[in-house]
Specification:
It comes from Nocardioides panaciterrulae. The protein has 256 residues and is α/β, with parallel strands linked by helices. The chain folds into two domains: 2-47 and 109-243, Rossmann fold, CATH 3.40.50.360; 50-105, no CATH class. 44% of the residues lie in helices and 15% in strands. The strands form two sheets. A five-stranded parallel β-sheet has the order 2-1-3-6-7, sandwiched between helices.
Length: 256
């Protein structure tokens, strides 16, 4: 299986980096092919900016939605150069808002397109990061915001564009997504509601919503204060997760 691992931690000596090393070794031992995207290593920009507008529109947008968002006006306002404005005005003359949206789609950011190529290559996805405030770190959350874009990770029916949640159209093809996260607090805190909240917001909406049927979330509880024995057990588990990536449900975690 081809596995793309997205890694989000700034410290190459961190527990998360050790998880990455052991998980990748497990994949290799099992004969899987893997690639790693180190978000800090490539200095990925997680901030959604005006440049990202083409990632969220295309010519399948209902005309009333495209008009509501003034796609034509946004194109003209995207530059202050008089010559460029004149050329743009000529290019979009006589075209509907939806047609202009389709033209803009070709101007998606290059770093997002590069991520799309890597994601298309993979059969399965893995994510390694700490939990910050019951979610992913900003750099990984921003990666999802920018990369999991319309007409790549999901589509919308006309009803979806008008607010009906049942109008979601999943587009990702991956067999499996494995999330591996380290935490400050112990399992008792997550048993008391934190894990169920993360499951709904991150696992369900972030990964099952775009079409990945098998989403597994493995927590390395209280890793920041773990004993050497506990850390060794966690890293052995990470290696097993890599080795068994294509064998269905993840094996049980070591006891608390």
């Amino acid at each position: 299986m081809k596995v793309l691992t997205v890694y989000a931690h700034p410290d190459p000596h961190s527990f998360c980096h050790s998880v990455l090393e052991r998980f990748t070794a497990g994949l290799q031992d099992a004969g899987h092919t893997s690639q790693v995207v180190d978000l800090y290593g490539i200095d990925f920009d997680p901030v959604l900016r005006q440049r990202d507008q083409p990632s969220w529109i295309n010519d399948t947008m209902p005309e009333d939605i495209a008009e509501l968002h003034d796609i034509r006006g946004n194109v003209l306002r995207s530059t202050r150069n008089p010559l460029q404005r004149w050329l743009i005005r000529r290019a979009i003359r006589g075209k509907s808002h939806s047609e202009v949206a389709g033209m803009l789609r070709s101007r998606m950011p290059k770093d997002v397109l590069a991520m799309h190529e890597k994601i298309r290559w993979a059969d399965g996805l893995a994510f390694i990061a700490p939990i910050y405030f019951c979610s992913f770190p900003a750099i990984l959350k921003g990666w999802i915001d920018r990369v999991w874009c319309y007409d790549f990770a999901f589509g919308l029916t006309p009803e979806g564009w008008h607010g009906d949640v049942n109008g979601r159209v999943p587009l990702l093809h991956h067999q499996r997504a494995l999330l591996m996260t380290s935490t400050i607090f112990d399992q008792a805190a997550y048993d008391d509601g934190l894990r169920s909240a993360i499951s709904k917001v991150v696992d369900e909406w972030g990964f099952r919503y775009p079409g990945i049927p098998d989403v597994e979330h493995v927590y390395f509880y209280a890793a920041t204060s773990g004993t050497p024995e506990r850390i060794a057990a966690y890293l052995a588990h990470a290696h097993q997760l890599g080795r068994d990536f294509d064998r269905g449900p993840a094996p049980a975690q070591p006891p608390r």
